[in-house]
């Protein structure tokens, strides 16, 4: 029997702390240059003159940092089969260089696939806050997780 976390191991209502990550200025700029080169992500002067009053991380960079936290703390130990997508995503406040973000996920619900007995679907709510406890991101997504015992009743 595998040591991986399977569909059966997820409990509705369970909350997992994914840990923290420091937001590094050079990484903010490098990510934005490659993927989201808006002035308030890559240029200090333009960012200072913007409504944000300074450099901010791309929301997509924030998502990528949180995904890394999820992989490191949970998915690397899970019989994950990917995801069919994100149901909602909200960037609530800017994430800035020198911030530290903390993420947690809550299991909202789960169900076995009727057409694929080896697959379970687990819906998560992601919540991310900065070092001041201010919410900066929320997201709901579904993970496809392997079922340990596909022969068990639905």
Blueprint of the fold:
Layout: E1 15-22, H1 25-35, H2 39-42, H3 44-49, H4 59-73, E2 85-91, E3 100-112, E4 119-129, E5 135-146
Antiparallel strand pairs: 1-3, 2-5, 3-4, 4-5
How do you describe this structure in short?
The protein has 4 helices and 5 strands, in the order E-H-H-H-H-E-E-E-E. With 154 residues, the chain is of the alpha+beta class.
Tell me what you see in this structure:
- The chain is α+β, with helices and mostly antiparallel strands and 154 residues long.
- The two termini are 20 Å apart.
- A hairpin with a 5-residue loop joins β4 (119-129) and β5 (135-146).
- It has 4 helices and 5 strands.
- It has a single domain, classed as Roll (Thiol Ester Dehydrase, Chain A), CATH 3.10.129.
| Gap from first CA to last CA | 20 Å
Which class do the helix and strand fractions yield?
alpha+beta
Arrangement of strands in the largest sheet: 1-3-4-5-2
Low-confidence parts, pLDDT < 50 over ≥5 residues?
A: none
As a percent range, the share of helical residues equals: 10-25%
Assign an overall shape: elongated
Total helix count?
4
CATH architecture: Roll
Order of helices and strands: EHHHHEEEE
CATH topology: Thiol Ester Dehydrase, Chain A
The count of DSSP E runs of length 2 or more, i.e. the number of strands, is 5
Provide the residue-averaged pLDDT: 96
Assembly type = single chain
Report the β-strand fraction as a percent range.
25-35%
Highest CATH level, the class: Alpha Beta
């Amino acid at each position: 029997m595998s040591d991986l976390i399977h569909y059966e191991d997820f409990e509705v209502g369970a909350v997992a702390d994914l840990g923290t990550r420091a937001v590094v200025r050079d990484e903010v700029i490098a990510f934005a240059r490659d993927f989201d080169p808006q002035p308030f992500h890559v240029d200090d002067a333009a960012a200072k003159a913007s409504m944000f009053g300074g450099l901010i991380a791309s929301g997509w960079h924030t998502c990528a940092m949180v995904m890394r936290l999820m992989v490191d703390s949970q998915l690397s130990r899970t019989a994950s089969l990917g995801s069919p997508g994100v149901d909602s995503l909200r960037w609530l406040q800017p994430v800035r260089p020198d911030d530290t973000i903390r993420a947690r996920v809550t299991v909202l619900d789960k169900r076995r696939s009727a057409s694929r007995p080896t697959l379970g679907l687990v819906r998560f709510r992601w919540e991310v806050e900065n070092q001041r406890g201010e919410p900066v991101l929320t997201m709901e997504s579904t993970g496809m997780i392997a079922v340990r015992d596909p022969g068990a009743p639905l």
